[in-house]
Amino acid sequence: MCTDKNDDNNAILAKGQNEIPDMLSQMRDAREEATPVFTDFVNYKNFHGSHVFCFYEGEDGYYYDPRVKEYLGTDKFITLIAKNKKKVLRVMELIQRNEIYNNVRTMFFVDHDFDESQPLNKDLFETEGYSIENYYVGEEVFLRILRTAFHINEGNPDQEKCIRLYRKTFAQFHKIMAAFNARVQFKHTISPDGIDCSFGNYNNNRLVQISLGSVVKKDEYEELLKDIDNRLDADAKKLKKIKNALEKEQNPFMVFRGKNELHCFQKFLQLLKEAYNGTANESTVLELQSNNNGIKVNFDPMNHPLGTLSQYANTTQKLIDFIVAHR
Hints:
The chain has helices at residues 2-33, 35-47, 61-72, 85-96, 139-148, 157-189, 204-207, 221-232, 236-247, 252-255, 258-277, 305-308, 317-324; strands spanning 52-57, 77-82, 106-110, 124-126, 208-211, 214-217. With 327 residues, the chain is an alpha/beta fold.
């Protein structure tokens, strides 16, 4: 009996010894994933301990920074850029599990995408829509741009004409892009991790032809969807179910993939600008009273839109409340 007991103890000990390297390896891998931004945080904290630390995905600071400054009431904040959503969440985990950072004010910002919502966390802001780009494309955003960049105010008959074009363009765009967005949602919700399919490779220039008041599929549209399906090993019945739900979506401006939404808006604004300035090709006919005043539209919607259009983008009450809570 003693021998059996010793054997059991030895087995348990051996198992524990085998698990320790695995645990250490996992901890090391987790830390390595976020090492650059985490290291920057530690270094900045030593010199700016009273500042607020903001962690963003990629270039999202172009949207968040001016809003943080406005609603925080100070410019004493440090911005730290993680590569993607996963790395923002990883560095948040590293910071929040260490008690020595409990008194450091931090804010972490991520896109919702088509993922499950993140668990509630007082220091984490998750976009209400797919991504921050969706805050740039609503009709109220367009009205601000008309007023400031095109000098078309409320009550001007040109405003209603432009709004009709905007609505018609996006209605057609959303109808076509529902199938594409079904693939995006399929990847986020059904496909296993590690699938090699980057939707950045399927931009609007390859999928659709956008004109003022008109959007049509390009010839390769269906072939590109088939290519995505092959990469995802997508189930046709599940895709159809997702697509049907997306076609009924009441606010596709917020739900559909943000980068495609913003690119459509950029293209629309560029075409509207050309029509307004009289530089459009002959196939584009848009008679506006406002463009007879000799004033040209000079802003460039195609040049770095996250920065150029940030002043017009929507700011939700959820975001305001989140920032104010970190004063």
